[in-house]
């Protein structure tokens, strides 16, 4: 897979290839996953536009919560949310195939561009 990441392209491509789209991590005893949010279509944006864009499918397991990395992965803007056509409860397996992208400047997002990073953390439901 070829991902267009604006700065430091070769270094990031190498890291993505080494980690195969999943960079697991630990915070104390909590383990989580990182998932690249990758554009699945070309789309033009004007500065200030906030609109949806199709993304490569991301599986979200039941009882996982999602956070978006605040580190800007795309110099043109930032991903604000991910989701799918029908919202499902956290207790069910879910997925993301659409992202809400906010453009900071006029740009054209291309298929396979890195838009952001999704952080998945397991939770235990208490009721």
Task: Describe this protein's structure.
This protein is mainly beta. It has one helix and nine strands, in the order αβββββββββ. The longest helix has 11 residues, at 9-19. It is globular and about 45 Å long. The model has no long low-confidence stretch (mean pLDDT 87).
Could you give the count of β-strands?
A: 9
Oligomeric state of the chains present here: single chain
Succession of helices and strands: HEEEEEEEEE
Largest sheet: 4 strands, antiparallel
Q: Concise description?
A:
The chain is mostly beta strands and 127 residues long. The protein is built from 1 helix and 9 strands.
Map the helices and strands.
Elements: H1 9-19, E1 25-27, E2 30-38, E3 43-45, E4 50-60, E5 64-68, E6 77-83, E7 94-103, E8 107-109, E9 114-122
Antiparallel strand pairs: 1-2, 2-9, 3-8, 4-7, 5-9, 6-7
